[in-house]
Design brief:
Layout: E1 26-28, E2 42-44, H1 45-58, H2 84-101, E3 105-115, E4 120-129, E5 135-143
Antiparallel strand pairs: 1-2, 3-4, 4-5
C-alpha cells in the first residue's frame, strides 16, 4: 500500500531540517531621548537586556501595578540590619528575580557588599545574554538618603 505525501514531505526521510534564527532583542531607551526625526531611541541586544536587568534590580515590591512581587526589592533592604546575612539575602533575591522575570538573561554571578557605615549597598551582577552569549556585568551602588 503506497503512502501519500505532500511535495514538502519528500525530504523528511533523508535528513533533518535545521533552521537558525538569531533573535534581536529591542527595547525603548528608558531615558526617552528623542531623535531629530521625532522617534525615541531604541536599545538592542545586550544593551536592551542590561537596561532591563538594571531596572528589575532597582524596582521595589509593589511599585509595578498588578505584579506585587515584581522587582529585586534591593532598596527596601537598605533599611534592614546590615550584616553578612543581608548580603546573602540580597544576592539570592536578585538571582531569583532575574531568573523569574528576565528570560533573556542567564545569571552567572551576583555579589552584594554591605557598607553599614555609609548606609549603602554595592551590587555586582554578571549575566549572559541568551541570544548572543555576550557576558555583561552591572555594578550598582545604592545609598540610603537621610
Amino acid at each position: 500500500m503506497a503512502r501519500a505525501q505532500a511535495a514538502e514531505d519528500r525530504f523528511l526521510s533523508s535528513s533533518s531540517v535545521t533552521g537558525v534564527r538569531k533573535r534581536v532583542y529591542k527595547d525603548i531607551d528608558i531615558r526617552l531621548t528623542i531623535r531629530e526625526s521625532g522617534d525615541v531611541f531604541k536599545k538592542t541586544d545586550a544593551e536592551a537586556v542590561k537596561q532591563a536587568v538594571k531596572n528589575l534590580v532597582m524596582t521595589n515590591y509593589y511599585e509595578k501595578p498588578f505584579l506585587p512581587k515584581y522587582g529585586g526589592n534591593v532598596r527596601a533592604m537598605l533599611f534592614e540590619l546590615a550584616d553578612d546575612e543581608t548580603a546573602e539575602e540580597v544576592e539570592q533575591q536578585i538571582r531569583g528575580t532575574i531568573s523569574r522575570f528576565e528570560p533573556r538573561a542567564e545569571v552567572l554571578n551576583v555579589v552584594a557588599e554591605v557598607k553599614d557605615e555609609a548606609n549603602a549597598l554595592g551590587v555586582s551582577v554578571t549575566f549572559r545574554v541568551i541570544s548572543t552569549n555576550e557576558i555583561v556585568t552591572i555594578n550598582q551602588f545604592i545609598q540610603r538618603l537621610r
